[in-house]
Structures are given as C-alpha cells and as structure tokens.
C-alpha cells in the first residue's frame, strides 16, 4: 500500500469503532448479550404508542377543568361583590412596580417568576374603584391549578374594564399600557366564530388637514391586532377613489381578496398602512362597492364547515363630496350589494374627530343599521355607529366591535390559534372561557399550554431512521410534524396545512379521516424525506417505503395524533442482561466529585474519564428531561446507571442504561489510544437511545442533541463510508474543526444492517491542510492549487481558502462553485454534480443544493492541455483535486447573501443546470390563502435546521473555576515556530499579529478583556500527560494516485 493510503489510515484512526461494530463474546465480561429485533408494525406495538393519546387527552382535560375552576371563582366573587357579601381582596400590585428580589428564575417558564402571587397590568381607561376586586380566592385557585398540573403555564384574566391579572407574578420592566380587550385571545373567546373583516378607512385631505390620520392608522392597527389566524382580512383606503394593497410576488391577492390574518399577512398590511398619505376628497360609494366585492371574489374557505361572520368596519371623518354621493344612494348601494350576499354582511361605522356634523353622523349611523335593507334576502344583523373624538381610550373603543358578534354560550372552552409566547416558551395555545354571570360579560380567563409539552413525548418516539409521529387539528393545521420546526424553535409562527407535508394520495386520505375525528390504521407505500446532512448545505433525500399509519382522535379536543411506522425500523430490547456502568460520569463536571479536573479549550474538563450527556430520548417523559441539572438529579442518574440490578426506572428508560453501559467500553480505547493525539480535539459516540459520550470530558449545552446535527445524518447516509465534514464552528467551544465519523451497525442484521449510532472525532481543520500539502508538494506551486471536496460540493480543504480559523465567528464552508468555477462547470455539464431543491416552510424559501453523483472521472482537459485531476478517496465521502491555475471562468454567485441560514447562501439568479452557487429563492406561496403551491410532485420539504447551540456554558462562573486548574495536557506550543506546524495541534493557536504559537489563545470563543495570552513555555506538573509529536507524513507524487484511490471514470 502506498504512502498516501498509509497516511489516511493513520489520519482516520477509527480502530475504536471496530470494537463496537463486532463485539466479541468476552467484550462485556462474559455476559451473553441477547438482542431481540422486533418490527413494530404489529397492532400491539401500534396500540402501545397511543398511550400518548390518552396522556395528551388527560393533560388537556385537566387544563379544561383548571380554567373552569377559575371561572367559578370569578363568578362567585362577582355575586359576593354585587350583593355585598364581602370578598377577601388580594393586594395585587402592578407587575412593573414589584421588587426585583421577589423573583427567582424558573426553568418551567424560562424567566423569573414569583409563584406565590399574582400581578396586574392596566389599560389607559382602567379604574381601580370601578372593578370587581381581585380576590385571594383567585390567587389560591391558580396556585392549586399549577400544583395539580405542572404542565400548565401562564394563567390570566382580562376584564371588560381593561385590567389584566396574571399568575404567576412576573416582573415588567416598565409600566406600559396593556389592554387585554385588544388581544386576539380575548376577541376569539367573545366571538369564537371565524370572521371576514374588511377595513375601509378614509384617506382624504380633510383627514390630513384635521390631523386625524394618526388616529385613523392607530384605529386600523387596533382592529388588525384583534384578529387571529382563523380570521381573514382585507383593507381599502379611499378618497374619491378606492385603493387596496397592490401586493407583490405571491401577494397580488391583497388587491381584491381577503387574506388569512397570519402574523406575516398582518405585518405586510401594517407596512402598507403606514405608507398612506391623506389627500383629495372622499366619496363613500366606490369604497363600499370595492369592499363588498372582496367578499364575492374571496368566496368561502375550502374545507371549513363553519359559517364565517362578515364585517365591514368603516372609518371616516364624515366629510365627503355630496355632489358625487348622497345618503340615499349610499344606502341603496349597501342594500343591493348585501342582498347579493344574502344580507350576511354586518357594518360597523366609526366617526373620527370632534367636529362631525349631525348629517354626517346620521349617514354613518344609517349605514351601520342598514336602514334600507332588502329583508326578503334574509335578516340583517345591525351594526353600531361609534364616535372616536380623540386618541384617548382608542384601544378599548375600536376593539369593541366584536361585542356585536358575540356568540358564546359560556360553557365550552375555546382553544385559541397557536401563537408565540413572549417569554420564550415557544409555540403556545390558550384555553379560554368567557366570564358571563347573569348574562353580563365581565371578561375572559385563560390558561396557556405549551405545545412543546403536548407533543414532547411524541417527538421523542425514537423507532429508527424512518418512523415518526405528527399531530394536526380538525382544520388540517399542523401542530407538530418532523418536517416542521419544533414548537420551541418557532420565530414567526407558521400556520401550515398538513397536506403540504403529507402529499401522497393515500396520505391525504388519512388526513381527511383525521379531520373527521376518526381513528384507524392504513398500510401503503409512501415517500419518506430524510436529511442528507445539514439541510442548508446537503439538502434532503427521499426513499419510498411501505408505511403503516395509526391515527387516533384525542377526545374532547380539536387534535388528532398519527404514528407512522415501517418494516425497516426496529425496536431493540435487551432482555435479562445485566448491563450497567462501572463508573458513570455525568457531563456536568461542576456537580461531579471524586475525579481530577483540568482545563481544555477554556473549559472545565477531565482526562481521567469520558462523560455522558443524556438527551430527551433517554427519558420516559420530556418533562423529566426539562428539569434543571442539580446535585440531586446527578446522583439519581448515577445510582441507577451504576446499579447492577435490572429494573425499570421512574424517569430513565432501561434501553438508555444498557446502551450507556455498552459505550463505556470505548473509554478505555480512547484513553489508551495515543496515535495523532496532538491533533484530535474530541472523541465521541452518540446513539438514538438518548446519550452521547465525549472524551476528554466536558460540559455540553443543555439543548445539544447529536441526532439533530448535520454530521450525524451525513454519516448515517454515507453508510459504510468514513465521513469527513467541511470546517464548522465547534458546538463544544473548540473553535473551527472538521469531524471524521462512521456509523456503528448492529452486527446481527447482516442482511439489513441497523445503525445504532455514530462514532466520531474532531480535528483542527488545519491538519487536513497540513497532510495534503505535505503529501502533495505540487499544491504549493504557484501555478497549481489543491482541494478536497465532499459529496455535496463543499470544500473540506482548499489551498487558497481562508477558513476563518482566527476569531471570525461567521465560519462557513466554501463551495466548489465559488472557488473552482471551471471544475464546477465540467462536473455540472457532465452530469456528475446535480442540483436539487427542497422547501423551507419556516422561511417560505426554496433551497437549492448540489449533490455529487457516483461515477467521477479522473481528469479533464481544456484546449488540449491537462487542466485538473480529480479522484475519489477510497472508503470516504470526499474527492481530491489538483488543478492548474489561470482559466478565467466564473459561476453565477451574486454578491448578495440570503439571511436566516447562518452560512453564506446566495439569492438564486440562475436556471437549473447552469453553474451557480448553492442558493435560495422565494417559494411559490399564496399568502392570502396561506397555501404553498407545490402539488404532489413539487420539491420535497426541507428537514428543519436544529436549534442554535450557542457558546454560553451551562456551568455558572466556569472561567473562575478553571483559573487555578492545570491544563489537561502538556502542549509545547511555544516551540512551534511556523503557523503550519502550530495550527495542526489541537490546543495551539498561531497569533498572526505577533507571530507566536500559543496555547489556549487566539480562540474563536469570546474572552474577557482581562484575559492574557500566555506565550511562555507550556510545561506543567506531573499531572499532565505529554502528548506525542506530530507524525511526519510520507510524500508521494500525483502520478501515484492511481494505485491508492478508487478511480471512477
């Protein structure tokens, strides 16, 4: 075997993996390992999955009962207060006036709270002495609710007088105005039927001259904010003409159709509203005619059996061109247009300003009453005429339009549309009831529930690579699906029809049955979408498999749950085998005692043991995983995982215990393995069953889940290949690294190997640069350059690339199309590099990535002269290329970055098949209907990006703790006099400004301004283990490639 292959063998050091792939009989101390492989398409297993349906139903019903208890207390307080029987007043302070030391941080609420008390917020017109007093009984029942159902979040009560009462108490930084009557949850509870609202507002010169335009705009904004995503909205601004938003790509519907009141649409209409300037004279006729046309052109909502309330909200100062319009003509127009819609439109009018004439007031009042209505077409619902003379109390005045729409019986809870919690709980829904004693509306009370809490146990169903679960409601709105962002990760809320994610005809049949609140099973062949690695760089792949659907309606709720399983997935049970950890070290090293600690990469670390971090898959309930790490919880984990007895734990899964014990065997291999020790940053192994083991030991971020990271899926998809990733910023804090990984299989499934997990190591990115340039001296020639490319076209190494090793957080990988246009064009034209796309439903974008097809050539020529050689590195996912410089070819990579993706992505300006960088463009999307225009054969869904990890340590004051600790290893960095020999060592950094090689300096992570770089000799006490010097690779020439590589022509 030639020198280069031997170098790769050293470099990839994957010998540890073989011990896991093919364990010998004595590998676990002579105990026979009995592995039972069960397919779980059986009815019995499917039934067991639906224990979660029962649990979700119980959770929601408990919340229904909790909000009912609040209602009963409030109505009882009302009667006591009305009949002067006396109530115990609660001394509720304004949330903004409470003391900071009243609060402690809560992991449940992700903010500081006071669980002992409530607090209040006031609207501008709220008067303390006019209110039903807030009682101790209200506080007590809210505390009782929280104690009995810990998944309950915020509990609150909004009154018709403009008071907002919240439990638990939370500090507000300022005493800003908050009016609960103005919020969607309040309006939706009072008027629970969905609404079609057409806002018609005056933009004439008289409005502008009187200074009333700010009131008009604020009034319109107040109306917009009361709407929820089930409602639809349209807007008309009028003077002598009637205008509506012109729209843009995907939004042209705003001109003549109603749009669902999603956050995105509301934001767009608000921006348009703010561009309006008052001018000209006003005429009501054209405005009303256009308003009625919106209802006709929009039609009914498809597949929505509920009738919708149609409302025109009309705002004017009453000054109009009477020569072009008269009272009788306006009323006749309303009569004719509403008759065409069977008198289903209600009109509410608002008179803006103080000096409105009596005639103007009468016109607006008659419009609201529709005094000329044709009753033969059906009864009308009279609206109201309301004066707005100033901006004072504007919110309560303008938001009261829905009082004419109230249709509640007061008996059934209203589950609001999902929305984002402002404290960081992610996507939540509100369960609300109106407070309506003796036919008088006092207000609305609600309890917030976290949708993450509802679906967390469904999300954590790990049944292999393909099986999954999803939840939807009776409107086919997606509550959870693995192809949507998890609720906790929502930024802007996405209201997505489940049919966009379940597109096959058979899938749509199941979805239709779920809408009807049925339960059942169905088996058919369908397409599964899986990530090829990092979605934004690697895209997705699809595979058709036989799937079995189990679905069930959750009684008493609008939700249905489905579980999808396949024959290819397995449920692993290790029975009657005593597997336990000899020494379990939890990753929170600040909570672990009895081991020697040191510092590495500016982190608290240990070289004595590997450490284990548990993910949510190790726990029986997500609520257990969400609990904060404490000395007590660490002890609980340690006692169970080291216990020799075989039994079920109340929190942790037995399979997690057994898999953690198996992976412990890697620790001895890692500690005793010394080859290339200077260049390896971390060694780790992660599986599907809830744990990742890391050496040297360090504390990982709480939200780190290896199964969501790009390296994991890239390795899984590459199957038997060693996977090498492009450079990236290490989530553990070690700076810019490259991962080398391979999958670990269950050996007993030779015919259809099942991947248990992924074993990997991280190296400093510059080590690849070092070995390539040492092996191929021609890479340093002025007329040549070299590169290593992965199967998505991203560069693991390029001799002319700057990988931002020093200090720049915006680390991204270069793509072959950016750095080597001529090579890229050849690959694309020959069909070796193909473009694929997927739809990112979160950002409403279509992402285009490249994929290298199998069958790569050896060389190419331009103008009869050799230009480049390129070969596949056998047994890996990468390709090595050496080329001559000088050919002036450019791919289409416009100098405009696309936002939101954390790496460099370009706006697409090329046609498919042309040479261009990975790019992103707007997806085909109808904003008004809130529908993606995909069809069954449109681009696949992108797999959601994992949550941002960040670099904040979970350990409080970690830098203070490690200050006096020794370094874990002896790094003789100062002896390295060149960047090339310095930067390949895992704890050494070359400080370009001063030309020195230093240990633990020039880091990517942020450091304190007081930190100093130690440029002295790196010798330490005998506690430190000297590491081997870097092995010098043998040098081979380009002509040796054919004997060492798998050549694909």
Topology:
Blueprint: H1 3-12, H2 15-21, E1 35-38, H3 43-49, H4 51-82, E2 104-106, E3 111-113, E4 119-122, H5 136-148, E5 152-159, E6 163-167, H6 184-190, E7 195-202, H7 205-209, H8 213-225, E8 232-238, E9 242-243, E10 259-260, H9 263-273, H10 284-298, E11 309-316, H11 327-340, E12 345-352, H12 358-369, E13 385-388, H13 394-398, E14 414-415, E15 419-420, E16 427-435, E17 443-450, H14 451-459, E18 468-473, E19 478-480, H15 505-515, E20 520-531, H16 535-538, E21 540-553, E22 559-566, E23 571-574, E24 598-600, E25 603-606, E26 611-614, H17 622-626, H18 631-642, H19 654-663, H20 665-672, E27 680-687, E28 691-695, E29 697-698, H21 710-718, E30 723-724, E31 728-729, E32 736-746, E33 754-764, H22 766-775, E34 784-790, E35 795-798, H23 816-819, H24 821-829, E36 833-840, E37 845-852, E38 859-862, E39 865-872, E40 878-884, E41 906-907, E42 919-922, E43 925-926, E44 931-932, E45 940-941, H25 958-962, E46 969-970, H26 979-982, E47 988-991, E48 996-999, E49 1025-1026, H27 1041-1044
Parallel strand pairs: 7-8, 7-11, 11-12, 12-13, 36-45, 41-42, 46-49
Antiparallel strand pairs: 1-23, 2-3, 4-6, 5-6, 5-17, 8-9, 8-10, 14-16, 15-16, 16-17, 18-19, 18-22, 20-21, 21-22, 24-25, 25-29, 26-28, 27-28, 27-33, 30-32, 31-32, 32-33, 34-35, 34-40, 36-37, 37-42, 38-39, 39-40, 43-44, 47-48
Helix pairs in contact: 2-20, 4-5, 10-11
Description:
By secondary structure, this protein is an alpha+beta fold. It contains 27 helices and 49 strands. Strands 4, 5, 6, 14, 15, 16 and 17 form a seven-stranded antiparallel sheet that branches. Strands 7, 8, 9, 10, 11, 12 and 13 form a seven-stranded mixed sheet that branches. Strands 26, 27, 28, 30, 31, 32 and 33 form a seven-stranded antiparallel sheet that branches. Helix 4 (51-82) runs antiparallel to helix 5 (136-148). It is globular, with a radius of gyration of 33 Å. The two termini are 22 Å apart.
């Amino acid at each position: 075997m030639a020198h280069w292959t031997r170098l790769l063998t050293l470099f990839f050091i994957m010998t540890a993996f073989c011990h896991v792939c093919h364990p010998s009989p004595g590998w676990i101390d002579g105990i026979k390992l009995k592995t039972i492989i069960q397919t779980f398409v059986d009815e019995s297993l499917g039934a067991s999955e639906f224990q979660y349906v029962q649990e979700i139903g119980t959770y929601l019903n408990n919340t229904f009962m909790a909000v009912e208890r609040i209602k009963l207390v409030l109505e009882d307080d009302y009667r006591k207060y009305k009949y002067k029987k006396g109530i115990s007043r609660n001394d509720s302070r304004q949330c903004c006036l409470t003391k900071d030391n009243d609060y402690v941080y809560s992991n449940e609420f992700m903010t500081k709270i006071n669980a002992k008390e409530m607090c209040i917020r006031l609207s501008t017109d709220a008067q303390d002495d006019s209110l039903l007093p807030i009682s101790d009984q209200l506080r007590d029942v809210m505390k009782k609710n929280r104690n009995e159902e810990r998944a309950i979040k915020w509990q609150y009560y909004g009154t018709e007088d403009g008071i907002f009462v919240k439990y638990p108490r939370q500090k507000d930084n300022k005493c800003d105005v908050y009016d609960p009557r103005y919020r969607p949850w309040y309006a939706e509870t009072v008027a629970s039927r969905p609404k079609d609202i057409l806002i018609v507002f005056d933009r004439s010169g008289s409005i502008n001259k009187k200074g009333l335009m700010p009131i008009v705009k604020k009034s319109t904004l107040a109306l917009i904010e009361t709407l929820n995503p089930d409602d639809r909205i349209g807007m008309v601004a009028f003077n002598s003409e009637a205008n509506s938003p012109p729209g843009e790509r995907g939004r042209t519907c705003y001109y003549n159709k109603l749009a669902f009141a999603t956050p995105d649409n509301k934001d767009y209409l608000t921006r348009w509203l703010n561009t309006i300037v008052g001018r000209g004279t006003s005429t009501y006729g054209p405005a009303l005619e256009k308003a009625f046309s919106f209802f006709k052109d929009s039609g009914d909502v498809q597949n929505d059996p509920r009738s919708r309330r149609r409302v025109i909200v009309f705002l004017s100062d009453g000054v109009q061109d009477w020569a072009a319009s008269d009272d009788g003509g306006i009323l006749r127009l309303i009569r004719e247009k509403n008759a065409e819609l069977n008198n289903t439109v209600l009109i509410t009018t608002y008179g803006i300003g103080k000096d409105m004439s009596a005639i103007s007031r009468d016109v607006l009042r008659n419009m609201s009453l529709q005094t000329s209505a044709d009753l033969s077409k059906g009864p009308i619902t009279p609206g109201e005429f309301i004066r707005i003379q100033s901006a004072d109390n504007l919110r309560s005045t303008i938001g009261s339009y829905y009082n004419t729409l109230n249709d509640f019986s007061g008996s059934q809870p209203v589950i609001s549309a999902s929305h984002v919690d402002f404290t960081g709980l992610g996507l939540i829904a509100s369960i609300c009831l109106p407070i309506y004693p003796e036919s008088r509306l006092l207000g609305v009370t609600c309890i917030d529930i976290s949708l993450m809490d509802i679906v967390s146990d469904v999300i954590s169903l790990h049944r292999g690579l393909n099986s999954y679960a999803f939840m939807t409601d009776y409107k086919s709105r997606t509550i959870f699906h693995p192809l949507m962002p998890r609720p906790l990760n929502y930024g802007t809320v996405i209201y997505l029809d489940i049919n966009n994610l379940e597109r096959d005809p058979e899938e749509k049949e199941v979805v239709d049955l779920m809408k009807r609140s049925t339960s059942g099973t169905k088996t058919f062949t369908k397409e599964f979408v899986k990530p090829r690695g990092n979605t934004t760089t690697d895209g997705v792949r699809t595979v058709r498999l036989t799937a079995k659907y189990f679905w069930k309606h959750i009684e008493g709720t609008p939700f249905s749950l489905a579980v999808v399983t396949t024959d290819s997935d397995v449920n692993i049970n290790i029975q009657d085998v005593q597997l336990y950890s000899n020494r379990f070290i939890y990753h929170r090293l600040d909570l672990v005692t009895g081991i020697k600690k040191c510092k590495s990469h500016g982190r608290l670390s240990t070289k004595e043991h590997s450490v284990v971090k548990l993910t949510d898959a190790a726990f029986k309930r997500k609520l257990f995983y969400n609990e904060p790490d404490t000395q007590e919880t660490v002890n609980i984990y340690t006692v169970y995982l080291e216990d020799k007895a075989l039994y079920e734990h109340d929190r942790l899964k037995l399979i997690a215990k057994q898999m953690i014990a198996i992976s412990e065997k890697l620790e001895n291999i890692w500690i005793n393995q010394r080859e290339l020790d200077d260049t390896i940053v971390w060694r780790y192994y992660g599986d599907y069953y809830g744990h990742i083991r890391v050496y040297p030991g360090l504390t990982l971020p709480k939200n780190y889940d290896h199964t969501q990271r790009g390296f994991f899926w890239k390795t899984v998809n590459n199957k038997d290949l060693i996977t090498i990733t492009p450079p990236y910023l290490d989530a553990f804090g070690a700076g810019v690294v490259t991962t080398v990984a391979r999958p670990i299989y269950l050996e007993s499934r030779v015919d259809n190997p099942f991947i248990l997990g992924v074993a990997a190591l991280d190296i400093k990115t510059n080590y690849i640069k070092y070995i390539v340039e040492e092996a191929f001296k021609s890479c340093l020639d002025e007329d040549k350059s070299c590169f290593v490319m992965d199967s998505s076209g991203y560069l693991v190494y390029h001799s002319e690339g700057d990988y931002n090793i020093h200090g720049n957080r915006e680390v991204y990988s270069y793509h072959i199309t950016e750095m080597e246009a001529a090579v890229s064009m050849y690959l694309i034209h020959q069909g070796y590099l193909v473009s694929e796309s997927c739809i990112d439903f979160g950002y409403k974008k279509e992402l285009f990535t490249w994929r290298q097809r199998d069958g790569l050539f050896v060389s190419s020529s331009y103008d009869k002269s050799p230009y480049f050689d390129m070969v596949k590195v056998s047994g890996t996912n990468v390709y090595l290329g050496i080329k001559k410089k000088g050919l002036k070819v450019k791919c289409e990579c416009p100098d405009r970055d696309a936002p939101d993706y954390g790496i460099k992505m370009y706006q697409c300006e090329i046609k498919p098949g042309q040479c261009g960088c990975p790019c992103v463009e707007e997806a085909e999307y109808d904003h008004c209907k809130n529908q993606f225009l995909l069809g069954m054969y449109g681009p696949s869904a992108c797999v959601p990006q994992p949550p941002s990890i960040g670099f904040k340590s979970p350990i409080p004051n970690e830098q203070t703790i490690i200050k006096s600790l020794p370094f874990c290893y002896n790094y003789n960095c100062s002896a390295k006099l060149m960047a090339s020999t310095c930067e390949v060592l895992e704890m050494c950094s070359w400080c370009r400004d001063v030309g020195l090689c230093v240990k633990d300096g020039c880091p990517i992570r942020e450091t304190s301004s007081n930190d100093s770089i130690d440029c002295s000799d790196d010798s330490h006490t005998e506690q430190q283990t000297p590491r081997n010097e870097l092995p010098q690779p043998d040098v081979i020439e380009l002509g040796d490639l054919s004997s060492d590589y798998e050549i694909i022509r």
